[in-house]
Amino acid sequence: MRVLGIREKVGNNRIRNSKSCTYNTIHNSQITYLAWNTTKKFKLDFVGIDIGERLGKYMIIELNSAPTIGPVWANKLGNDLIKMYKRL
User: Fold this and answer.
1) Given CB 3.0 to 4.6 Å as the disulfide criterion, which of 21, 35, 46, 76 pairs with 11?
2) Shortest CA distance to 29 belongs to which of 58, 52, 9?
3) Digit-coded pLDDT (tens) for 9-53
4) So what's the pLDDT on residue 71?
5) Do the Cβ atoms of 68 and 18 come closer than 8 Å?
6) Are 28 and 49 in contact (CB under 8 A)?
7) What Cα–Cα distance (Å) separates residue 32 from each residue in 43, 50, 76?
8) How far is CA 84 from the centre of its chain?
9) Cα–Cα distance, 81 to 71 (Å, whole number)
């Protein structure tokens, strides 16, 4: 029930896929709000959301049902799931 984090893709390529860029972790309340409302609207428990920015506005590009989250976010997610199941 939370946004795990925001990774900003950094690269010079026009198309920034996972193999052609690096990532910075950022904090952005507008992006967090958009992501949170998207998950609530579609009743999603876990999703990766690609968000783009154009002319100063953020927009949803894509929802990923099996996002590549890497080891840091995987550990955070794993810890959250363990806590959740312990409460059941």
Assistant:
1) 21
2) 58
3) 666 665 555 555 566 667 788 988 999 999 999 998 888 888 888
4) 75
5) yes
6) no
7) 16, 12, 17
8) 20
9) 15
